Amino acid sequence: MAAAKTARGRIAPLAEEDTLSLGERAYRRLRESIVQGVLPAGHKISERSLAVELGISAQPVREALRRLEQDGMVVTLPRRGTVVAEVGPAQLGELGRIRAALEGVATALAAERMDAGSIAAIAAILKRMQAGTEARDTDALDEANEEFHALIHRATGNLFLMRSLGSLRAYDNLGRHRAVGSTPRDLPKALAEHKGIVAALKKRDPALAEARMRHHVLRSLVTNGVLPPPPRKERRT
Amino acid sequence: MAAAKTARGRIAPLAEEDTLSLGERAYRRLRESIVQGVLPAGHKISERSLAVELGISAQPVREALRRLEQDGMVVTLPRRGTVVAEVGPAQLGELGRIRAALEGVATALAAERMDAGSIAAIAAILKRMQAGTEARDTDALDEANEEFHALIHRATGNLFLMRSLGSLRAYDNLGRHRAVGSTPRDLPKALAEHKGIVAALKKRDPALAEARMRHHVLRSLVTNGVLPPPPRKERRT
DNA sequence: GGCTGCCAACTGCTATGGCAGTTGTCCATG
DNA sequence: CATGGACAACTGCCATAGCAGTTGGCAGCC
Prior knowledge:
Pfam families (chains A, B): FCD, GntR
GO molecular function (chains A, B): DNA binding; DNA-binding transcription factor activity
CATH class of the largest domain in chain A: Mainly Alpha
Protein name (chains A, B): GntR family transcriptional regulator
Number of strands of chain A: 3
CATH architecture of the largest domain in chain A: Up-down Bundle
Domain HTH gntR-type (chains A, B): 20-87
CATH superfamily of the largest domain in chain A: GntR ligand-binding domain-like
Radius of gyration of chain A: 19 Å
Oligomer: homodimer
Largest sheet of chain A: 3 strands, antiparallel
Keywords (chains A, B): DNA-binding, Transcription, Transcription regulation
Distance between the termini of chain A: 44 Å
Number of helices of chain A: 9
């Protein structure tokens, strides 16, 4: 991604071409730096020093830190300092389960209101996934997977959902970043699940789409080592 | 929550309500004002004028507005203004479904890690609910209900969950505020559901607890008129 | 040596001022 | 009367400066 490759704990100054507000740019940059591991957990962050590193004032930095705090990515003790939050394996698992639930409702909503154009678009993405799976092109698959979920999120038209899932997917990247190299994902299985989800979307069956999406996310978390294998069979109400 | 029990000669810690940052106080105040209807949807908010109303600087106000924007309660068009977000019935329903899902995972997590003390506490709350239901004391019931869910949220120990559910419950209050007076809730049914949830917690059955909690929230949303009655029977995967 | 108290160097937090866009109004012009 | 353009009054956004706690270390005393 754009996050400049720098020494551990150091942040490169912001480019000034963009039209986004400095606070917004600082927010994204910091979030990226955290999930990429540039700012490791427990690392102390000073509003002032970070401001001079980014080449901006302390104000937008502070604003970004407040938002990151609301995301749970940093914690700040008043008048004492701000620290990158520790996210242990247990918490990563919890966040994964939360994400699975939210992706589920997102898919349910999408199944209800998705227009024909979006369905065609997601079908196209599915085709790319098929090709990527046969070619074992994990990079292309990752990109397609990103678009796949992003499209569903956008289809819901729900801002809260999109924001929350955005934060949670960031954590997901962090988890994958930790399990470095050891991602022996079961590609065909993921493809089949994606197909099933798209089928449910086409059938406009919210409950089915939700169940399949949730199962898909949970299973992928298990194969990624974020979650332990399910202890038992599923439970019925 | 009176003065902490301390040994002779020891001094109890100071209350910390007084020392909250202005930004934090502005955030809470604004959020409260929005969900209470004091600041109706579409109302324009100016950082400066709001600052003088609150008797503080524009900075903390801006900070609070950014956080509210992340919550989805206000939207701000750059260099044009900030307005409190429109939350129509449809969106309210979506947020309700999201909340149901999150309350579900929260309860699942709680079922896994709740200590004996918390279980005893929630059993006590349940007893109060029983009494309140028999006495038709809706005020006491609302209070107990609040504590009931708050206790579960806290039991998860998950900050992200607690923050998200905090925002979503605010929306819930807003929804109830709109359906003024017309809350003919089915009290005994809610009580039975709460009992079932506590039973699942005691059995430490996460899947069961989750399903029951989710169903409970969804049903209560339906009886409150936030969600339409379910169109069909539940679906199996 | 070990403890106490002070001081400088931090920290987050807030106030003030000013910049650059946006909008609405009012007057001059066709 | 209708139209267009400039000006004033907004807006959000950012930089600077200074306040008030917190911390760490170092001198001075027991």
